[in-house]
Amino acid sequence: MEKYQSFDLEEYKPTLLTCIYCYCGLCIEGCPVYRVTLNESYATRGLSQIAYALLSGDIDLKDIPDSLVYACTGCRWCEWNCSMNTPRYIVEHGNRLNKVSGATITELFRAMRVESGEIPTQIKDALNSLIKFGNPYGLPKDKKDKWVEERGLKLNGQDTVLYVGALVPYEERATAEANALIDVLQNAGIEFGIIGGEELDSGAFARPMGEEGMFREMVEHNIELFKENNIKKIICLSPHDYDTFKSYYEDLDGVEVKHYTEVLWELIEAGKIKPVKDLRKKVTYHDPCYLGRRHEIFDIPRNILKSIPGLELVEVKGWTRERSFCCGGGGVGLFYKPPGINLDLIRADQLKETGAELVAVACPQCHQTLEDAMKTRDYNIEVKSIAEIIKDVI
Amino acid sequence: MSEVIKPKVSPKEPLEIRAKEMIDELKEAIGKDKVSVDLPTRLTHRFTHGPEVFMHDDLNDFLPAAVVHPRTVEDVQELVRLANEYLVPIIPQGGRTATFGAEGVRNMIALDTGSMNKILEFNEETLRVTAEAGVRIVDLLSYADERGYLVLEYPTMNRASTLGSRVALNGYNKFLDRWGPSGWYVEAIEVVLPYNAKAVTIGRGSRIPHKSQMGFNLLPLFFGSKGGLGIITKVTEKIIPKPPYYKYGIMAFSTMEGGIKAYIELRKRAGAGLVWRVKTYNKWFIGQAVRDILGQEWPEDVEQLTDFHILGYDKEVVDTMEKKAYEICRKYGGFWREDMPETTFIGRMHETMEKYMGMGALRSDRIVKGGRGNRIVPFDQAIPDARLISYFREFMPLLREIEDGEHYPALATAVKVLSPGSPVPGGYGWTKVWGLLLVDGTKVDDEVRKEWADWYRKMAEQVWRHGGTLTMTHGMMYVHRDMRKEFIKRELGEELYELMKFVKRALDPNGIMNPYALP
Predict the structure, then answer these.
(1) DSSP one-letter string for A317-358
(2) Residue A162 in contact with residue A153, Cβ under 8 Å?
(3) Nearest Cα to B95, choosing from B32, B145, B168?
């Protein structure tokens, strides 16, 4: 295994065989793509078979269709639920190489596709843009520098960085979330800076797109940046960046990484921000896969919401917390959706059933995916980030 | 009498060609989106949880020609009609977590019931639920639970298992001792018959009364039919109000005999409707599991554990039975200490399935450095309660032969014993010896298979000497599916075997249903 947990399919073989030998099928029931397609080849138990057959020469890469390679959003339901990830050694020392995970298998397929050059156009465009501009939208880096300057937050000696990720300031909703968060943090007197255009994607997009080489370069570049700037604390806007830093950035010793909801809750508990205005709405919280299942942060966002006067918090029946159903925005979901695999619409339906008027989110990818899904379904349900909700009530 | 569908091809034509022609026509008939011929989907439907895969060097022995995902009973009927016309057998598949019989077969058609997944009727007046065969048991359990009821269909693998399979296997359930196996609470099935592709409902469905003298009762014919006599498309089952009171208890014993005697006596209470489940575990099993999963040492003085589940509708009655259960255990030397290691991941395995199945990592590289895990292979001979202790005295030494490296040197490299058997009720007066082996599939070769079959023959002789059956639930484990006929005939006798074949030929004259259901 190379640095930052990079490896190829052959190295992953013992983990594939672990899944094939166990064959318990616990990964299938809650796999969102399985739930939509009812085809087990999309769930990890099927993906392991296919991957093993690829290694054995029983199938060629070209026989694995785009939908199978790219449908997985990396929600980690399978990884969380997998029997073979319960032994103590894996719980304590588990990593990308030894954990059974459909997300990893599909990332390996995607890496093989990148090597072969056979990538869907939408992903190719997003990748090229990431390489050239550090964001997937093809927009110039200096737009980020301008935004940082306008906010007066160019990193200049602060030891805390707000890591806004590759969507800001290019995507409207992510940018609104970032702006709201900045206002709240400043209101609380928190000192921090933002890197600006030099800040590359954490790798949270590169790896799921199969660009392992780019992933390693991005990690090394970002680590260097943090070291040069003596960064001691990173506050992440996106759970995807949060997860990437926590899971793969091996050389970030002594640097504290937090998701912004953790910081907001600390500030509320310390009395540095006070939700005082009423928000008399029925609200449901959509657990982002990379904050909830991946890092077991379930209660903090809920505590934040419950601290708001008048707010009534309701849960999605059956598909909440550890069982949260993926919105479909993870993996390559923002750029490429295999036809007929509409996780976003399923999730919108589940959220609607709660009777909530407002869906609170804590991830910019969930935010755009769910808001678009509500529009597609013509549901009159607002989707808003926790940062924006808090800004409105303090 | 409805006509048998006649083939329109010759059986001499190669199966591969017949299958291809059939698939083309099937796609036209039911829609291309319901027929998967892509290699990834076919690869996905090769195996099951069973060890048959270890008996073959070429895994493409299991590769079906297509996987069909019917959504309606009409789709299934069309499939059966064409299977008869083209003489291409069908292997019905559910969750594939049973351990035998549903593996794919080269050039045959796998039928995936997963798209027939609707709960159709939930009748609180008659206490019946009707659902399609592909409904996942966990979904059915949740559905009933939300409404205050318990579905008795409660296998260990409830999160992967599907309803139709439960009937096809006459499955084992958590509360079997109190409520019986699957067949006892199935009130009706809809089945597509192989000979004429008609869908018939057998049983009384959600109507009442339940018992009737009209004609023959053909419902039990399909319990345990393993996809060999027809395709089950709907099932009506009994439900019960969820008992509000549930007590779980466990005691330790310093002798195997003490734990087993407590187990046998506790089971007598099941008939009174109070103790719904009892099980007993040996330290050979528990010690390994606790050490490698929890990192704790097993107490030297504890040879056996026995646990029990008491459920009921009256708190006083449940509390009294709980006290009685502990008295029974103490009568046979049962005790408990607060420093005993935690074992509910085994005792309450229906709820903690991921931890239970995680034991496939025991005695493998996965526990030590996160490498490859093994396959858990259960074996489940059933023995009369009265002979259980004498059986274990003979069986334990035979089990040790697997690992000692002397009796079966090749087998010892590939197979380890995880559990010698955790006796669990197998019906009134019977016990299922639920043992577990760990198999390193990378080490299985012809020599291992030969020694495996040899060991199994010895085990079979022991079981039959004690009046038992080779398998209550999991099927014959250690012999290639082509060898199973020998064991079936030896256990059941030639006459009964021939009767079963007669019934199979009557219902399936063209031989289009799972050929390995009755070899």
Answers:
(1) SSSSGGGPPP-S-STTTTT---TT--HHHHHHHHHHHTT-SE
(2) yes
(3) B168
Q: How far is the C-alpha of B30 from the C-alpha of B32, rounded, in Å?
A: 7
Q: Which B residues 143-202 touch A at CB under 8 Å?
A: 157, 159-160
Distance in Å, alpha carbon of B156 to nearest chain A alpha carbon: 11
CA distance B59 to B43: 9
CB contact B142 to A (< 8 Å): yes
Query: Taking the domains of chain B in order of start, what are their residue ranges?
Result: 15-114, 117-241, 245-480
> Closest by alpha carbon to B132, among B237, B218, B241?
B237
Residue of B nearest to A21 (CA): B375
- Element at A285 (helix H, strand E): strand A282-285
Q: Cβ contacts (< 8 Å) between B439 and chain A: which residues?
A: 21
| Phi, psi at B91, each rounded to 5° | -110, 105
Largest CA distance in chain A: 63
Q: Domain B245-480 is of which CATH architecture?
A: 3-Layer(aba) Sandwich (3.40)
d(CA A101, CA A104): 5
CA B229/CA B504 separation, integer angstroms: 6
Domains of chain A: 3-118 (no CATH), 123-267 (3.40.50.1860), 274-393 (3.40.50)
Task: Scan for tokens 């690829």, then name that residue.
Answer: A54
Question: What is the complex's ipTM, to 2 decimals?
Answer: 0.94
Q: What amino acid is encoded at A368 in this protein?
A: Q
Instruction: Give residues 313 to 342 of A whose Cβ lies within 8 Å of B.
Output: 318
For the cut 70, the answer to whether the pLDDT of residue B242 exceeds it is yes
Per DSSP, the three-state class of A279 is coil
Confidence of residue B478 (pLDDT cuts 50, 70, 90): low
Residues with Cβ within 8 Å of B210's Cβ and at least 6 positions away in sequence, in order, are B187, B204
How far is the first Cα of chain A from the last one, in angstroms, to the nearest whole number?
48
Is a pLDDT exceeding 90 seen at residue A148?
yes
Radius of gyration from C-alpha coordinates of chain B: 23
**Cβ <8 Å between A18 and B41:** no
Instruction: Name the residue among B380, B387, B347 with its Cα closest to residue B260.
Output: B387
Q: Comparing B15-114 with B117-241, is the CATH topology the same?
A: no
Is A46 in Cβ contact with B372 (below 8 Å)?
no
pLDDT at B269: 65
Residue B102 and residue B130 in contact, taking contact as beta carbons nearer than 8 Å: no
Tokens representing B41 are 């989907």
B233 within 8 A of B190, measured Cβ to Cβ: yes
CA B120 from chain centre, in angstroms, equals 25
- CA terminus-to-terminus distance, chain B: 28
Contact of A320 with A293, CB cutoff 8 Å: no
pLDDT, mean of residues B97-111? 88
The H or E element containing residue A160 is: strand A160-163
Question: Which CATH code for domain B15-114?
Answer: 3.30.43.10
pTM of the model: 0.95
CA distance B307 to B179: 18
Residue B88's SS3 state is coil
CATH of span B117-241? 3.30.465.10
CB B175 within 8 A of CB B275: no
